[in-house]
Every structure is written in C-alpha cells, then in structure tokens.
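Support case: 6CS complex. Customer-provided input:
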Amino acid sequence: ETWRYAFEEALDEVQGIFAQKFKEEVEANSDHEIQLFPYGTLGESADTMEQAQAGILQFVDQSPGFTGSLIPEAQVFFVPYLLPTDTETLASFFRNSEAINGMFPELYAEQGLELLTMFPEGEVAITTKEPFASPDELDEVKVRTMTNPLLVESYKAFGATPTPLPWGEVYGALQTNIIQGQENPMFFIESTKMYEVTDHVTMIGHNNFTTAVMANKDFYDGLPEEDRQVIENAIDVAFDHIIEYQKGLHETSIEKIKEAKPSMTFTTLTEEQRAPFREAAQEVEARFIEMTGEGGQAILDQMKKDLAEAQEASSS
Ligand code: 6CS
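Agent response - structure generated as follows:
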C-alpha cells in the first residue's frame, strides 16, 4: 500500500528531514510505501490538514501555530517563555511529557487525528526591517504570525500589530511592506531567504518552534497491530534523528545568512531588555485560560510540571 504524507516545509528543511527518515524506516520494515508531499505541492497548511482529516492523506505534519485554530488547547505552545530554548531539555520534555503523550492525543482524536509525535524545530527569532529592543519600539510594526488567536495576543502584548497570514503570503507581504516583521527558527529564516526582505534578527528568547505529526485516525485505527508498530518505531527513529540533525543548525544558519547578507544584524536581548516581554507573557497566559477554560488550565499545569522535570533531568 502507498501512504501519503504531507508536511509544511521543503524536503531539505527540518520537517522534510523528519519525513524522509520516517519514510526510510517504514519502507525498510514493511511492504508499504510512503509518498512525500512537501510544502506547496498540496496547498497551504490548512489545506493539508483538511485532506488528512478527510483521509485523502494518511499522514500530515502541522504545527500548533496552525492547529491552534482547530484545537484551542494547542495554542499553549504560544504562551511566551513557557518552553525553554535549550535543545536537550526540549528533547527530554517532548519524549517524556504527560501533556504531550497523554493529554494532547485525546484532543487530536476528537478532530479525527492520531497524534504520533511532537518535536522542536529551534529557537524562534524575530526578523524585522527596523531594529527593536523594547515593546515601545514595536509600536505600529506589523508582524506576521501563524494563524492562531493566542499568537496574535502575544504580539499585541509585545507592543506590535500582529498580522496572521498563511506562510505563502509572508515573503511578498514583507517585500511590499504590508508587514514589517515575522518570526521563525533560524534554519527557516535562512532557507526561505527572509534576510532578503528584512534586515535585523532579534532573539528575545520567547519560544521554541514546535511541530506535530499525526495520522488520519480512522486509517490508523484500521491498521493491523503490526503496521501500527512499524509506524511507532519509525516515529521514534525519526524523532531521535531530527534532534541529532538540529545540533549546531541554529549557528550554521546564522553563518549562512551572514555570508549571503553581511549587513544583516543579529541581536540577543539581555535579561534586562527581556523583562517587559516576560511581563507581557503573564497577560498572554491569562488570555489562554480565558480561551480554553479548565481543559486549557489542566494542560498548562501539566506542561509546567513536565517542563520542570525535563529541566531537572537535563541539569543532573
Ligand atoms: O511560519 C510558518 O508558517 C512556517 N514555519 C516553519 C518553521 N515551518 C512551517 C510553517 O509553515
């Protein structure tokens, strides 16, 4: 049988590297074939999600940045300063978290999706046309966000004017000055040439990019146990591979950007400069609870517990 798997990035970007490893493992350990559909071949992220829910696709990688409009609790990944930017802690968190492995699968199941894994894609940096070091300096700056209400709230709290857009519109909107900034992990800023349409990279340490891989639930439930095991193992192998693959990726991406555009500036805000952004995070957390109620509160509490445990595990 041929299974179709769509993701939101190119083949040589993080989601593509994960998908290729998954395909390799499944094909080496079963008679099934995986057909990969990189970003753009089947539409935007919202389109591939619909196709996965409809069973036209068996697998889809969609980031909570988009899924948050479908599953409000998935917006928890946009509470600023909740996730650490340290890769080792993150890997341990995603591997062991009860919120990720126990609670989220139920929420995805309600949408006809079998959540297979979530993994980190790197520290989120903000690229803008003008430099900034405080919320005041973001006043009137239109910053593109992925399409979920909590990310919009974050950028409002950061002092900017958030503009949610699908990925395909971002380069053009920056080029024509409809927006003046966007956020993404460094590898993506490099590979999608965001440095051609923005001039400054600022790291405020507010988040790490999270993505999720899922299967159509009816398809998955209908598989023999043997096939489900092949899929689970392939996901585990691909997870380890993608953590390993990303070692040093942030740094080499910075080097590549500097080479392509020597005038690009890179600024890491100090703890003192981050203080007002951290403060704004409180307000965003409160908005998350307003939007998601008791269910959201339970997920947030569990995540904080899981994160504390991951932190402890990686520091010991
Ligand atoms: O910003 C976005 O929309 C995209 N960013 C990444 C890192 N992956 C896919 C997503 O569509």
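The radius of gyration is 19 Å.

Case will auto-close in a few days if no follow-up is received.
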